[in-house]
TrEMBL record:
Organism expressing this protein natively: Pseudonocardia adelaidensis
Keyword Membrane belongs to the record: yes
Keywords annotated in UniProt: Cell inner membrane, Cell membrane, Membrane, Transmembrane, Transmembrane helix, Transport
Protein name, entry field: ABC transporter permease subunit
Chief place where the protein resides: membrane
């Protein structure tokens, strides 16, 4: 073999090997059970929601598989005769007020608990868990009695104050680990460059704590929208939220058509889903984290 043959053999491209066939793994028994259980749960939830939606448009539904007719008049009747329009405004006002107060008070409180070590700190953290894990009915009556003694019964102020009891500790407990993830050296460096307490908090800590604040705000909003017991005992005819108005329509001794309460329930679900979707669209914690690390 000459040198030319050796060079030609070295420069000849080697044909690529066909990719090896990936062996499909068989699903395990645990995976099958998990997927089947999840599918059954989703089907049950969708079936319940679909039945409520169909009921809200039904003229008469005698218990068969399908109503006798359909109408959208129940939504107009719910809007005009049950006070749902005012309840929607009250729900929005209460939700926004509770979120703002919780963030304004809960973020500094979480910072102090994360940065300061003092006797009784563990006890305070434990006590904050009680309003979150205890059923609201266990302390709703006592809170309502206190609001009426203070002359706040039936007012929007009372609605906001009682909803702060379970939501404010929630914000504090969420913010504590977020503060602990920030190195104290960052604050020391900001002070070296002349930042006072106000500028340190607003220009350094708030941007770093923004993901936790957004997550806490979303959880507080969702919990306030669904709060029934606390709001029911202190709200009046002009300050009841949508969930309380829905309960009042269902429990009306005069008898309310099922389709009317179904229309109110669909409206409540749409408001809750819309509020959550808007919150996640504009204040997604994951987006805030990515923007912070750019």
């Amino acid at each position: 073999m000459t040198a030319t043959d050796v060079l030609l053999e070295q420069n000849t491209p080697v044909p690529a090997r066909p990719p090896a066939r990936t062996r499909r793994e068989r699903p395990t028994f645990t995976a099958v059970i998990t997927w089947v259980a999840a599918a059954c749960f989703v089907l049950v939830v969708l079936g319940i929601l679909a039945s409520v939606l169909v009921q809200s448009f039904a003229t008469v539904w005698r218990g068969g598989w399908w109503p006798d007719g359909f109408t959208a008049g129940w939504y107009g009747r719910a809007w005009t005769t049950t006070g749902m329009s005012r309840a929607l405004v009250n729900t929005f006002e209460a939700g926004v007020a509770v979120v703002l107060v919780c963030l304004l008070a809960g973020v500094p409180a979480g910072y102090l608990l994360a940065r300061r070590s003092f006797p009784g700190r563990s006890l305070i953290m434990l006590l904050m868990l009680l309003p979150i894990i205890l059923p609201p009915m266990t302390y709703a009556v006592q809170l309502a009695a206190l609001m009426y003694r203070l002359g706040l019964g039936g007012s929007m102020t009372a609605v906001v104050l009682v909803n702060l009891v379970p939501t404010l500790p929630l914000v504090v407990l969420i913010m504590v680990p977020f503060v602990e993830q920030i190195s104290p050296e960052v604050e020391s460096a900001a002070r070296v460059f002349g930042a006072n307490n106000r500028r340190l908090f607003t220009h350094v800590l708030v941007p770093l704590l923004l993901p936790g604040m957004l997550a806490a705000g979303i959880l507080v909003l969702v919990r306030t929208l669904g709060a029934f017991e606390l709001t029911f005992f202190v709200s009046g005819a002009e300050t009841q939220t949508l969930v309380v108005a829905l309960f009042g329509a269902i429990s009306d001794p005069g008898g309310v058509p099922v389709s009317l309460t179904a229309a109110m329930a669909v409206t409540y679900m749409l408001v809750a889903v819309l509020g959550l979707a808007i919150s996640l669209r504009y204040v997604t914690p994951s987006q805030a984290i990515r923007q912070r690390h750019r």
